[in-house]
Amino acid sequence: TYGTKMPRANIDFIRNLKIAIPDVKTQKEIVNYLDETCHKIDRLIDVKVKKIAQLSNYKKSLIYEYVTGKKRVSL
């Protein structure tokens, strides 16, 4: 590499760079793990979004009840 503020790599350096690539079995295991993990995360996000919607509706109903006088604020 060269340069001080923005180091750059020489094209010959990059061209000759050795990159380890896992075998196909390992790649499939990685893909399966990532798919399962992403699926779990997506399910958790769905649960949280539903909870947020429920809380938002509850908040709106409480505001409505107090504004319309169906409930009173006790001091």
In short:
By secondary structure, this protein is an all-alpha fold. It has helices at residues 11-15, 24-67.
3D structure, described in words:
The chain has 75 residues and is mainly α. It has two helices and no strands. The longest helix has 44 residues, at 24-67.
Total number of helical segments? 2
Main sheet overview: none
- Tell me the span between the first and last alpha carbons: 71 Å
Weakly predicted, low-confidence segments = none
* Number of beta strands: 0
Helix content: 55-70%
The helix-and-strand class reads mainly alpha
User: Mean pLDDT, rounded to whole units?
Assistant: 91
Radius of gyration: 28 Å
Q: What percentage of amino acids are in beta strands?
A: under 5%
- Dominant shape: elongated
Order of helices and strands: HH
What's the arrangement of secondary structure elements?
Elements: H1 11-15, H2 24-67
Characteristics:
mainly alpha, 65% helix, elongated, 75 residues
